[in-house]
Amino acid sequence: MTNQEIAKILDDAAKYAKAVPQMAAVNRMTLTDAYLIQRQSITLREQRGEQITGYKMGFTSKAKMEQMGVHDLIWGILTDAMAIEENEIVDLKRWIHPRAEPEIAFRVSKDIKKQLTLEELPEYLDAMAPALEIIDSRYENFKFSLEDVVADNCSSTGYVMGDWQKLDREITDLKMDLIVNNVVVESASSSAILENPLQSVVELSRLASGAGLTVKKGHIILAGAATAAQFLEKEKQVAVQIEKLGEVGFRTK
Ligand code: OOG
Ligand code: MG
């Protein structure tokens, strides 16, 4: 299959919430192919009127790498169709086998076109917020290789963010809880994310600029989950609570 054909299959899988088999091995897909396919699948979304709202990093914590069996940083693209309002009631029929994970979001205040250092970040970011990411692999049984998951836009499917806050406090060791119906189901320190969630932004600046992309002013960046992700079930209240940052959640039906 061509990259374009694979992009279409993955886009349809997302559109119709129907899982497909993995495709990387049989098509001898390289990581370069995988990112091209990811980009082509985003072009299909753009042709339907979706707009890019930011980027997400993946496998930035050991918990995630171990849960998914993939050991490399990945990045994907977010669009406005993936945005979920705080406290929105989301119909799970939209998705195949969605999971939620606790994250921190950053807001970009100046175009990023090169690899940044941690020291340079305050010039490029102006806010942060507690966030939940909803991931929904388009592959059967939520199983994939590195190339497969990258081609599938790193399972990106939804995100919800709490109130934006100033970057005026230390965030290297904040307690992050994933809460379902008032019960903490996963918990970790923010240090689980590359020892410092801001390091995710450094890594994204390296990977995106290396791919010739600009992370634009106003874009959001999800730093990657601190804990393993949890499958979503119907009629639940799902929230993330982060020490010093607050909380945000949504409901399922
Ligand atoms: C891939 C996406 C990983 C994260 O935060 O680590 C990710 C997946 O687990 O399906 O979003
Ligand atoms: Mg994530």
Report what the structure shows:
The structure is a single chain. With 253 residues, this protein is an alpha+beta fold. It has one domain (3-252): Fumarylacetoacetase-like, C-terminal domain (Fumarylacetoacetate hydrolase, domain 2, Alpha-Beta Complex), CATH 3.90.850. 23% of the residues lie in helices and 29% in strands. It has helices at 3-15, 31-47, 62-68, 146-151, 197-210, and strands at residues 52-58, 74-79, 89-90, 99-108, 125-135, 156-161, 175-180, 183-189, 220-222, 230-231, 237-242, 246-252. The strands form 2 sheets. Strands 1, 2, 4, 5, 6, 9 and 10 form a 7-stranded mixed β-sheet that branches. A hairpin with a 3-residue loop joins strand 11 and strand 12 (246-252). Helix 1 (3-15) crosses helix 2 (31-47). 2-oxoadipic acid (OOG) binds next to strand 1, helix 3 and strand 5.
Gist of the model:
By secondary structure, the protein is an alpha+beta fold. It contains five helices and twelve strands.
Q: What fold name goes in the CATH topology slot?
A: Fumarylacetoacetate hydrolase, domain 2
Radius of gyration: 17 Å
Bound molecules: 2-oxoadipic acid, magnesium ion
State the end-to-end distance: 37 Å
Q: Taking all residues together, what is the mean pLDDT?
A: 97
Total domains, how many? 1
Shape: globular
Major pleated sheet = 7 strands, mixed
* CATH architecture title: Alpha-Beta Complex
* Strand and helix order: HHEHEEEEHEEEHEEEE
CATH class type: Alpha Beta
Estimate the strand proportion: 25-35%
Q: Give the name of the CATH superfamily.
A: Fumarylacetoacetase-like, C-terminal domain
